């Protein structure tokens, strides 16, 4: 069993989620690699947060406020880094150039220029595995959809719809945070926050956007500042709808592809969905009902949607019985398994079981930059 010494930069929500996945590593079967949390880093080093990590991970030997101390630590092989978008270029390029494998967060740079700088560092260090976090494609329903894509089971694909919807900002009295400030979040707004989740499967499937017509929405223009209640402007986009003309890399066919990202979606807690319509088969999947895959296979005659109850059938096998339910923490564990499998072997388990690559992140930047132009000019823009 190969051991990978793992450092975490950013001890917030996702830092704890990924650390918890490491604690569940025994849940995986025949994985061949094991991460061990050896270092943590946060600018604030809040005692309660540091205490949680130290209590649950006695393997931690380094706690630091300056990420450069972690990069200088020879006892760290790989790093997960979750920092605000404006810090991506500085942190990610430094991590890569230090020779540490990197699991990064979206959007992989605050804008296209920052993303290009990160890609330059990736090209300098081909020995370093660099991937971006996106866990939803590891749900069993999406893994089954990937198998259908690889088998060309859909026939001629003529429409794809996907998106990520939640309601975290539905309350207009919720205090403003850094994701509402362009200097920290970037002009992409919700696209930078949620967009790669919507793009992961289409891009991995080879559905490449040729152009985009974007409709971006600012729904709550002001929020309390969180200090004295004074209202301050919300600078970034709340919701985004991107209508693309996409090309299927396998067949060369062109079809409409709609991608939605919404932070204000009434009735949605945290919903990722995908719909594919083809001449031979169509599917619909949503994490709102993660055990269900809707499938329509057409061979002439009547049309009928089937509702298939899904097994716990994950890319990386686990001790869980097939009749049980798959959830968000399971998708995090699968994503972590995919990352460390590539660190250990140099290749993904299979195309469907791989994290977002730097090239896919770069394509999302081209799409989101074109979407900003589309919104500004009310036009269709080339991607």
Question: Explain this structure to me?
Answer:
The chain has 383 residues and is α/β, with parallel strands linked by helices. The chain folds into 2 domains: 2-132, 3-Layer(aba) Sandwich (Rossmann fold), CATH 3.40.50; 136-322 and 357-382, Dihydrodipicolinate Reductase, domain 2, CATH 3.30.360.10. Helix content is 31%, strand content 27%. Strands 16-15-14-13-7-12-11-8-17 form a 9-stranded mixed β-sheet. Strand 1 (2-9), helix 1 (13-23) and strand 2 form a beta-alpha-beta unit. The radius of gyration is 21 Å and the shape is globular. The model has no long low-confidence stretch (mean pLDDT 96).
Total beta-strand segments: 17
CATH architecture of the largest domain: 2-Layer Sandwich
Number of domains: 2
Under CATH at level 1, the class of the largest domain stands as Alpha Beta
List the helices and strands and how they pair.
Blueprint: E1 2-9, H1 13-23, E2 33-41, H2 47-56, E3 62-64, H3 67-71, E4 78-81, H4 88-97, E5 101-104, H5 112-124, E6 130-132, H6 140-150, E7 157-166, H7 182-185, H8 190-205, E8 207-217, E9 222-224, E10 231-233, E11 239-248, E12 254-262, E13 270-278, E14 281-286, E15 292-297, E16 306-309, H9 328-345, H10 358-377, E17 381-382
Parallel strand pairs: 1-2, 1-4, 2-3, 4-5, 5-6, 7-12
Antiparallel strand pairs: 7-13, 8-11, 8-17, 9-10, 11-12, 13-14, 14-15, 15-16
Helix pairs in contact: 1-9, 4-5, 5-10, 8-10
């Amino acid at each position: 069993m190969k051991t990978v010494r793992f450092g975490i930069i950013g001890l917030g929500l996702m830092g704890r989620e990924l650390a918890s996945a490491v604690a569940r590593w025994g849940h995986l079967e025949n994985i061949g690699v094991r991460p061990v949390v050896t270092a943590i880093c946060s600018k604030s080093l809040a005692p309660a947060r540091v205490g949680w990590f130290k209590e649950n991970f006695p393997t931690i030997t380094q706690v630091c406020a300056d990420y450069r101390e972690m990069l200088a630590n020879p006892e760290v092989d790989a790093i997960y880094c979750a920092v605000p978008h404006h810090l991506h270029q500085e942190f990610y390029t430094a991590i890569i150039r230090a020779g540490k494998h990197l699991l990064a967060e979206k959007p992989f740079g605050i804008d296209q220029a920052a993303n290009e700088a990160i890609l330059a560092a990736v090209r300098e260090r081909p020995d370093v595995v660099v991937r971006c976090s996106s866990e939803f494609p590891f749900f069993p329903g999406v893994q089954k959809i990937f198998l259908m894509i690889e088998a060309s089971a859909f026939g001629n694909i003529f429409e794809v719809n996907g998106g990520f919807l939640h309601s975290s900002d539905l309350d207009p009295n919720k205090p403003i945070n850094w994701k509402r400030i362009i200097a920290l979040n970037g002009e992409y707004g919700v696209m930078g926050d949620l967009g790669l989740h919507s793009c992961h499967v289409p891009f991995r499937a080879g559905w490449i956007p040729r152009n985009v017509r974007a409709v971006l929405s600012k729904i709550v223009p002001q929020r309390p500042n969180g200090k004295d209640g004074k209202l301050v402007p919300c600078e970034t986009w709340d919701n985004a709808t991107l209508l693309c003309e996409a090309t299927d890399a396998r067949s060369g066919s062109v079809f409409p592809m709609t991608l939605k990202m919404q932070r204000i979606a009434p009735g949605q807690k945290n919903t990722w969905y995908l719909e594919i319509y083809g001449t031979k088969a169509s599917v619909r999947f949503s994490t709102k009902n993660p055990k269900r895959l809707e499938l329509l296979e057409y061979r002439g005659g009547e049309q009928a949607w089937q509702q298939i109850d899904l097994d716990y059938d994950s890319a990386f096998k686990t001790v869980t019985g097939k009749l049980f339910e798959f959830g968000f923490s399971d998708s995090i564990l699968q994503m972590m398994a995919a990352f460390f499998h590539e660190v250990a072997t140099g290749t993904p388990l299979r195309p469907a079981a791989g994290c977002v690559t730097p090239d896919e992140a770069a394509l999302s930047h081209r799409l989101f930059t074109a979407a900003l132009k589309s919104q500004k000019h009310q036009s269709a823009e080339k991607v």
